[in-house]
Amino acid sequence: MVRSLGCSAVMLLAACGPSSIELGGGKGGRDTAADTGIDHDSGDTGSGDTGSTDTGDSGGDIGEPAACLAHGFVVGESAHLAYGASLDAYDATAGAYGGANIGEGSLAVNSHADCALTSGAAVRGELLVGGDPSAAFCEEWGATTSGGVHQLAAEAELADVSAPSAVPDSEGEFSLAWEETHALEGLHHYEDFVLGYGSTLTISAPAVLVVDELRVEGATVKLDPGATLDLFVREAAGFSWGTAFNTGGSPAAVRIVLLGEDPLTLVNGATLTGQLLAPRSDVEVGGTFQGGASAASFEAAWGAALHLDESLLCP
């Protein structure tokens, strides 16, 4: 489980207090009722339709992988950025992250959010909280936010998720080892899904994967032009040891959905580009994440880099 970093945590030397805090609505007045649902044959699990998602056979239309996000990162219970973690934004439709393609992102936390920023964390953009903004920012070791800390005008909506309606029988375990390669498309159901160090998985056409547990350990996952991936995980998910998951690709092409309450970790230099919908899960990031996310709790530390894709935001 992800453990929150409170103001009394080890190595935090100063008390919580406001720093360059702007009270009031700010951009928190934006519409927070955006469509983040996933429409499957079993019915619309969100507030809107993201496309026909006939998963009855592997050749069916799997629908649009992208959903409109009211905020780049939405957290229901608690969020903590610390120890050099940073958050900003870019526009994936304008090219790769970097240079002139760096802008301001946003992190919305429905809870009171004590010490959501601390210990050298840097937000290029704004922090939106459900409680007192002055309690959400802790100044230890130079935590900064360029857009200030604001109170949410309304509770930010977390994604409402469910599995596809027609999941086929399990094909057993799936694993790739050193220098092994494999191409996938269509609809598949696996138990443990393990991509080992030095392996490469290519998504060659639109694909829907339903897996029990996901471990990507130093592997490369890439998408061919026109391919999309909807990856539904029933238990825990882990990305580690330099994994490159859709690195350099479009976040709109990949959607990772955690169906239960098990955690997701992105650590040890791993890179993940996509949309993460985990409304009941704890998420821990110690690598690089590009796209947008919805989670029960969110912790980023030890140089974690969060790059919101502005093209995923609602107009």
Describe the structure.
1% of the residues lie in helices and 40% in strands. The protein has one helix and 21 strands. It is mostly beta strands and 315 residues long. The strands form two sheets. It has a 19-stranded parallel β-sheet that branches. Strands 1-2 form a two-stranded antiparallel ribbon. The chain is globular. The two termini are 35 Å apart.
Descriptive terms for the model:
315 residues, mainly beta, 19-stranded parallel beta sheet, two-stranded antiparallel sheet, 1% helix, disordered N terminus
Report the total helices.
Answer: 1
Tell me, rounded to a whole number, the average pLDDT.
80
Major β-sheet profile:
19 strands, parallel
Shape: globular
Please give the radius of gyration in angstroms: 19 Å
| Intertermini distance | 35 Å
Low-confidence stretches: 1-66
The beta-strand count equals: 21
Strand residues, percent: 35-45%
Q: In which range does the helix fraction lie?
A: under 10%
Structural class call reads mainly beta
N-to-C order of helices and strands: EEEEEEEHEEEEEEEEEEEEEE
Outline of the structure:
With 315 residues, the protein is mainly β. It has one helix at residues 133-136; strands at residues 39-40, 43-44, 73-81, 86-90, 105-109, 122-123, 125-129, 144-145, 149-151, 174-176, 181-195, 200-217, 220-223, 229-233, 237-240, 244-245, 254-258, 264-266, 271-285, 288-300, 305-309. It is globular, with a radius of gyration of 19 Å.
Sequence-ordered SSE layout with sheet pairings:
Elements: E1 39-40, E2 43-44, E3 73-81, E4 86-90, E5 105-109, E6 122-123, E7 125-129, H1 133-136, E8 144-145, E9 149-151, E10 174-176, E11 181-195, E12 200-217, E13 220-223, E14 229-233, E15 237-240, E16 244-245, E17 254-258, E18 264-266, E19 271-285, E20 288-300, E21 305-309
